Amino acid sequence: MASERTLAIIKPDAVAKGVFGEAVLAIEKAGLKVVAVKRITLTRRQAEGFYAVHRERPFYADLTAFMSSGPSIVMVLEGDGAIGRWRELLGATDPAQAAPGTLRQRFGENIQNNGFHGSDAPDTAAFEIGFMFSGLELA
Ligand code: UDP
Ligand code: MG
User: Considering the entire predicted model, what is its pTM?
Assistant: First the structure.
């Protein structure tokens, strides 16, 4: 499997719960590496830009309000099949549907406040990493 990079976000609800360490533990146990990390409170405009792909969806306004409601921790993860592997660690979007032991099942509250984000494909990973990090931070 090829080495990939993906964008992970510990969303404001999960940062408030203090489960950043649990996420890093799961990441490192899965053999992935954190190659960049920072804590950032997104502005509403930044959250709208990040989730622009969802701008026509009914949940867009609530989602972007939530994502700009407090600090997130954003990370770039690297490793073999990192995109799919991180999505597997997260579980389904809705914590109630997420497999037992996944991060969203353990720490998510509801389909919006689901604790964590992961890129879903190589092209979205490239966009999302470039949105959150500068080239210097990824050197
Ligand atoms: N979301 C929501 N309501 C929905 C579906 C999604 O509030 O009905 C939020 C949720 O926080 C999710 C994000 O929008 O993580 C992006 O949705 P997507 O379908 O891309 O899910 P993901 O890729 O995060 O699993
Ligand atoms: Mg998505």
Answer: 0.98
